[in-house]
Amino acid sequence: MTAETPPMPPFRDASLPFAKRIDDLLTRLTLEERVAFLHQYAPPVERLGIPAFRTGQEALHGVAWMGPATVFPQAVGLGATWNAELVRRIGEAVSSEARAMRARDDRVGLNVWSPTVNLLRHPLWGRNEEGYSEDPALTAAIATAYTRGLRGDHPVYWRTAPVLKHWLAHNNETSRDTSSSSVRPRVLHEYDLRAFRETVEAGSVAGVMPAYNLVNGRPNHVSPYLREHLRAWTDRDLLVCSDAGAPSNLVDSEHYFATHEEATAAALLAGVDSFTDHGTDGSRITARVRGALERGLLTEADIDTAVRRQLAVRFRLGEFDPGLDPYASTGEFDTPAHRALAREAAEQAIVLLKNDGLLPLRPGVRLAVVGLLADECKLDWYSGTLIHRSTPLEGLYERFGAERVDFAEGVDRVRLRTASGRYLRVPAVDDTAEETRGAEGALDPALLVGRTDLPPLTADAVGTELALVDWGEGVLTLRAPDGRYLSVADDGFLRASADRPGGWVVQETFRLEPSASHRGGHLLKHLGTGGYVCVAADGVKVAGREAGDAEIFEVEFTERGEDAVARVAASADVVLVVAGNDPHINGRETEDRTTLRLPAHQERLLDAARAANPDTVLALVSAYPYAVDPTGLPALLWTAHGGQAAGTALAGVLAGDVSPGGRLPQTWYATDEDLPGLLDYDVIGGRQTYLYFEGTALFPFGHGLSYASFAYTDLRVRREAAALTVSCTVTNTAAVTADEVVQLYTRAVAPSVPRPRRELAAHRRLRLAPGGSVAVTFELPLTALEFWDVAHGRRRLEPGSYDLLVGASSEDIRLGATVELDGEPGAFRPVRERGLDAADFDEQHGIEIVDRTKTAGDAVTPADGGAGELLYRECDFGAGVTGAVIEVAGEGVVELSLDGKPVADVTLSGTRGPYDYRTLTAAFTAGGVHDVRLGLRGPVRLAHVGFSG
User: Fold this and answer.
1) What pLDDT is recorded for position 174?
2) Cis ω on the peptide bond leading into residue 115 (within 30° of 0)?
3) Strand partners, 712
4) Which of 132, 355, 598, 710 is most buried, with most CB under 10 Å away?
5) Is the Cβ–Cβ distance between 949 and 879 less than 8 Å?
6) Under DSSP, is residue 98 helix (H, G, I), strand (E, B) or coil?
7) Which one from 135, 177, 237, 243 is the annotated catalytic residue?
8) Residues β-bridged to residue 870
9) How many angstroms separate the CA atoms of 293 and 31, rounded?
10) pLDDT 10s digits, 31-40
11) Can 931 be counted among the known catalytic residues?
């Protein structure tokens, strides 16, 4: 006799719909097993043959953290390409490499935490490099393309499952886990939600990650918007993954809940399905979930809802159908096609900001290449490890010949002399390992530690000449002659051990602080630990945080960087200054910038080059905009850190092999004074981004020059029932093949509320041969012209005139037409029937929006407990009212005025807490239509004003 083969369980039956299979699997999993699935590292269920699963694989511009991979330009550089099809192909390549890498290392995940769709509202945001644009339409177009590439084109199975970051209104690293973004309804619907919505609705998104910050006083990880908006945009089960450590923040730093059980339950009920907390240790999260179940804060059905969403992703990734998964045996890695794609992306990301005819460089030119980034190929926190590397210097050597290129880095060459007269010395070592940080891959690179196998620095009579760079605000790096950076490991000793600055806490940065006791002397502070450097018998180390523990150094300059630059610049035909940032210093995750200015060290180098040679080109290689003075510069370019092919791409553009076609994805402001406050999220009231900015930008949104010229002609507009068709002809009038980015903007001519000065509606990047022409057509749905009507809580197309503007940037408009649209006339606010929700104001001053309760709703309060004012226009009191019913909490005064005339006020002496609302009444009479002003004084929270009588 032979044993009968057990029947196939339904969850293994590929002929059944995923939903039925998941239903079956949920019934087979025990409660403990389902609870364990809620942590980022879901353990295996061996009895059912289910392997372990990890949510989260960083893949912002290539597979990150898991060792060598193709490195594409930073996300802001991909945004600068304005080329959705190119970005789709990059997503395809990245997901293909993820599959290939997973085939040999199962630590590589297929649930990728990319792309970042936070809008680049403020250029000082430390993570500017991670976003695509300040504009929601451009961001959505690029993000949709990337997710489509990551997903693949199979109708059932996905190559990888992309998760969008970071929900919502997240543009500051300063106090990022405790600060609240005050987002009025119009900004919420017209700006911050829009990029997420359009990308999710396109159908290639597996989920989202909430951000660390709060929005309107409520942490994003318990936001009702996850349910009210995100899950309403699609019928697919979206997986919501928490950001790392954010579940614990709800109690530990935000103090929003008293216990972790309450916090975990609230996050799960709000829609968080996977908890990223405590690294690989899921025990604390599962204990909190069990505690919440025991206290009745959660039910098993709540657990099942979250687990179902995770399983839906795993089924789509083919985990349960390896024989049917079309991507199971695929996965190209570091192919010639991927290398060519990295170069194409780097070329298309370069933006020519200014050119007085010096570019492209003439044949036979003699070049001086100078600057701190001239021989660098910088990586950021979300980069993979380079397989191939091309710096600007290397690219120019290859293109023009090394014999025609001179180089000066521009570092300050120094020796550090101790108080005893000795000098810091880097011991000679025979280290042929060439260890590269992160080359082996790490699930959490924040846990990588510095090397301790090399000898620490000492001091002797001669010392070692060090390369000193000031990256701004006195933040220094010191590099040994062998190219390794001085770094501090866990044992506290200084070693020349790092291939580059990096790490979650950078251990390669220092500051020289003037000594109070020694004229001309300095203390050397290590910024990673906050301790001062001292010279001990066993080596140079970081001592305590007190200045008394520190060695006093005198800095002796062997050569100033500007002298080296001037020397090579004077003998060249053209000078190329390559300046910019190191992505791990002064502007990165956890650290915002403080200024738009180029660091003083690099300004010195630029000034020296220009003084020695007026034919100086400035190439900015950076993760964000700078405020530089282009006066007198013949040419100026910008590119984000361009990945593995950055240098080759830049050389090709400078030589004219490629005509630059990138466009700015965000406004470049002229001065810091043009910027709003970092925490001011009201892009309308604060007149922020190109949409509302009324000043003169250094370089406007969408700007970028070419080596060609283009003519725009034959604008035509055809109106249909629900859309406008806008077309024109674009002709290359030059003698070189080049790309043009055709941009369509709209503008409401005479709106009843503040609307954008102009707003990107569509764009297309196209390549034209000399003399070539193409007809460009855009379909513009009328819904794109709507705004959020706060008076009635919905979108509305306002009747009136609308400009349709076609051009090469937001300020370079070549063609225009005006159309009259019927739309829906505005209606007065029906306040007699519905009252006023406090956050639905038209204008405000000194007000921030806060949470009405911990689960839903908004209220308003004066910023910092001071005074504020709200305006609600055209409120219809109908036949008349006799009083106001005011819902308030806290302590303070609410004053009510009609058309500027005070009519009533109430005083609240204090409640038991911010959510202990009281209903107060105030008598007054009014009828007809009036503008209502509400003045708030003191720490009072106003939720709603109703009207009686």
Assistant:
1) 97
2) yes
3) 730
4) 132
5) no
6) helix
7) 243
8) 844, 934
9) 11
10) 999 999 999 9
11) no
Residue 241: other Cβ atoms inside 10 A? 25
Give pLDDT < 50 ranges for the chain: 1
In the chain, what's the furthest Cα-to-Cα distance? Answer: 97
Pairwise CA distance, residues 395 & 654, whole Å? 10
Strand partners, 780: 724
Do 109 and 55 form a contact (C-beta atoms < 8 A)? yes
Query: Can you tell me the distance from the alpha carbon of 97 to that of 72, in angstroms, rounded to the nearest whole number?
Result: 12
pLDDT at 330: 78
Beta-carbon contacts of 310 under 8 Å, excluding residues fewer than 6 positions away, are: 37, 42, 53, 55, 239, 273, 274
- Which DSSP state fits 273? -
116 contacts 166 by C-beta, under 8 angstroms = yes
Tokens standing for 366?
């003699």
At 8 the three-state DSSP class reads coil
**pTM over 0.70, yes/no:** yes
Query: Residue 167 is encoded by which pair of tokens?
Result: 């929900």
Ramachandran assignment for 823, one of left (phi > 0), alpha (psi -120 to 50 degrees), beta (any other): left
Contacts (Cβ under 8 Å, ≥6 apart) of 486: 426, 457, 466, 477, 478, 479, 480, 494, 495, 496, 498, 508, 510
DSSP 103-114: HH-TTS-SSB--
Q: How far is CA 341 from CA 175, 221, 332, 336, in A?
A: 38, 37, 13, 8
- Residue of 123, 126, 111, 116 whose CA lies nearest to 79: 116
State the pLDDT at residue 431: 62
Indicate the DSSP class of residue 703.
Answer: -
Amino acid at 93: A
C-alpha separations of 692 from 30, 35, 627, 755, 841 in Å: 55, 48, 19, 8, 19
- How is residue 577 written in tokens? 């200054």
**CB of 558 closer than 8 Å to CB of 468:** no
Residue 835 has, within 13 A of its CA and on its CB side, a CA count of: 16
What gap in Å lies between CA 483 and CA 498, rounded to an integer? 9
d(CA 281, CA 248): 13
Nearest to 647 by CA among 892, 826, 828, 391: 391
- DSSP conformation letters of 831-896: HHHH-EETT--SEEESEEEEESSSSS-EEEEEGGGSEEEEEEEEEE-TT-EEEEEEEEEESEEEEE
Q: Is residue 486 exposed (0-12), middle (13-18) or buried (19+ Cβ within 10 Å)?
A: buried
What is the predicted pLDDT for the residue at 226?
98
Q: In whole angstroms, what is the distance from residue 534 CA to residue 550 CA?
A: 5
Q: Is 403 exposed, middle or buried (0-12, 13-18, 19+ CB in 10 A)?
A: exposed
Structure tokens, 742: 């055709």
